[in-house]
Specification:
Chain lengths: ~450, ~500
Amino acid sequence: MAFIPHTPEDVAEMLAAIGVTSIEQLFDEIPASVRAGELSGVPEAMSEMEIGKLMMQRAGADGLPLSFIGAGAYEHHIPAAVWAIATRGEFYSAYTPYQAEASQGTLQTIYEFQTMIASLTGMAVANASLYDGASAFAEALLMAVRIHRKSSSLKILVPRAVHPHYRDAARAITSQQGLKLEELAYDPQSGRTPLEALQAHEGADISALAIQQPNFFGVLEDADALSDWARSRGMPVIAIVNPTSLALLRPPGEWRGAADIVVGEGQPLGVPLSSGGPYFGFMASRMEHVRQMPGRIVGRTLDVANEPGFTLTLQAREQHIRRGRATSNICTNQGLMVTAATVYLSLMGPRGLERVAAACHARTRELHGALCRIEGVRAAFTGPYFHECVLQLDRPVAPVLDALAARDILGGFDLTPYYPELGHALLACATETKTSADIRTLASALRDALQAQHAA
Amino acid sequence: MPARAEKLIFEYSRPGRGATDQWPREFGAPLDIPAELARRAPPLLPEVSELEVVRHFTRLSQLNFSIDTHFYPLGSCTMKYNPKACNAFAMLPPLLARHPLAPLSHSQGVLACLHELQEMLKAVTGMQAVSLTPMAGAQGEFAGVAMIRAYHRSRGDLARKEIIVPEAAHGTNPATATMCGCIVKEIPVGADGDVDLAALEAAVGPATAGIMLTNPSTLGVFERRILEVAEVVHAAGGLLYYDGANLNAILGKVRPADMGFDVIHMNLHKTFSTPHGGGGPGAGAVGVSKRLEPFLPVPIVGKEGERYRWLTERDRPQSIGRLSGFMGNAGVLLRAYIYMRMLGREGMRQVAEHATLNANYLLARLARAGFEPAYPARRASHELIVTLKRMARELEVTAMDFAKRLLDYGFHAPTTYFPLLVPECLLIEPTETESKQALDAFVDAMIAIGSEARADPERVRSAPHSTVVRRLDDVRAAKQLDLGWKQGAAS
């Protein structure tokens, strides 16, 4: 129980060395009035065998449905080597690398990770990660306000086509410091954020512009035009990107209005879906902004014998040094997930990642085609899309998804509560894990669901 | 452990090489991505074989100290054994494969685990409601302070913007207060380790939103007058926030709610043994009293009859909102759940008892060996502080030197230079999963290094000698920024 190794003899010797007669005496400074009684809300202890059986049962209850849900978390093949390495005790049970000599494994892994993320995003420098894409987006807004000294409005332009949870989290986190998120409408035909939406803010004092590419609908924005508008008006550009897509899409560092800060969800890079976490948020920026970046950063330097080595650097930005004046209160990077991602990217390499991205795109096109052929289903948008698409049904989405779920198929994500203006809309995604047979299975089940309700 | 450096993965690259078994089949269909949106040059990623990847990262892992390989007495980090079962069962394939937006019909298993975790955390803290969503201790702190502000605002009390923090507090506390748009007010700690009550009374007033406290404190001792502190702050209209970093010391023995705290965050990666992973992921679940319940961050797991569902902003209109893309670090939460189920109610209590026994044993042996405890008249909680200020003054051997020499003896160093209040300090937290033999070996090493400091101080000052790198130049690292490998750069 409790993985405690002490024998009664050990305890007796230790108490004698301390000079007390019982463990209870060691708590004698604690007022009696705050001592807890029996913890009735906690059940009896279980053996490993018992909890193992329970977890198998619970896992079994949720099954392994055929899923076409994306919406910010993507099912990809994760090579077995990724987690075989990441769960090695030396990585899994190591602490934050504050004692650099004892942590070169972790530190070098992070340095390699930073290199890969910087290159993927087309930026000069990346940090050691943040909690997830949504909170990284919030941190990016705060960072943009810090770097855009000429602006005092604290107003950020954020397209409505940015992931709704990202906008919610950003609002919850940044409103505490007075930031205001101003929504930009999308064009209902193409699904893109039009330049006109920006032009409405001509001459206003705006702190920054955010662009998600592809956007939440899977639609490809005209990132060049939008970013150029902002940059030429002195506004920092914040890009939110899908890391897999960067194998095929022009990275934000190379947009016409090159981004200042790039963030996104790193989950697609070797991290399992796992009910929503743990994931990791990546962040990259121009070199001139590096001192405003939150989170940990690893640097390479020399040791006392002139040997190269790795260490946490620019720590003066962080909470343990700057305390109340730190760039953020963040004290964590998602070390374990970063390790997994670095292994994943090493196994994939540039061509493997390109293959994954191309396969996702091709499968989603196939999905789009197969579903739009069904009566009662049509494409919502005309714009080019990448690895995710929005479909409109001729009736409410929820009951249709329920019917599919009853057949162990998760047909997509219901957009109705978030974008009521789109009517009965569904966001569907097919990654490289889906086969043509899987898509036919979905199409056939969807056809049945729509016909059944017709007949009813 | 090999003391040999490992090349960068990029230095193994050969054009055209790759772990091709892992790649999906090539798709013949031409891509229809508009030319202006297409990438022009491939990203800088390694082109290596799978064996090269496995060998490289396995070798890198061998350069780390970890709980699995070394006694790791980092104060305030709670480096206890991470049970393999927690990892194995949290990584059952259906649990790994579950999409966060899967419908309730396919979520009852996971939601049952998470709901039960919420209930167990309520039980051990005495709090009335729990949200599991904050993804780290610092995010839990953010949620806590944000809830305190929301509470005051909801009562029209808009002037309350000050957060009181003891000067010995962890840096995240004032950083969090600032992130929430608050003003930080520091108060001193007395020589006996307790908060200065008179200073606190002078500091509270109509602008006080609340106080952030750890108990036992960052000084490794129990805040003996906590009930009086609570009285003073509540009487002034403020709320009490509990930083749960040191919960391991009192688990099952004291419930923070009973000490007067209104809101708490727990570090599941400390007390509840989820993996530190080289810097994360953590999980900072928050617990609140009834009056703060409406403000909890969403989503929360709710139960109706035998069925579980998510409670969102629709159910909790006064919530401070969501803090993450989905529902937080579910995989971490499952590991904490499995750990708590294995401990059971008896186990919780045993954790605190043996963690405290181990710390007091170290305190006794180290004091007897001539080391200077920072608070000699106090009981250690689950951790203790020794100050090496005399050694630093007389022999010019610092706490940093000591820490580095401990690496040569095969121990990860304790926390150094925190809390800032105690000069040249080592903050030592053994945790309950270490045996008496492990503790004795550590004390023996400390004694040996103490002798070396007198007989051959340079050996200690120039430590470590056995690690793959030694005393990295931090100044150079910050001045000559090298934050990523550049193609064509010298290795």
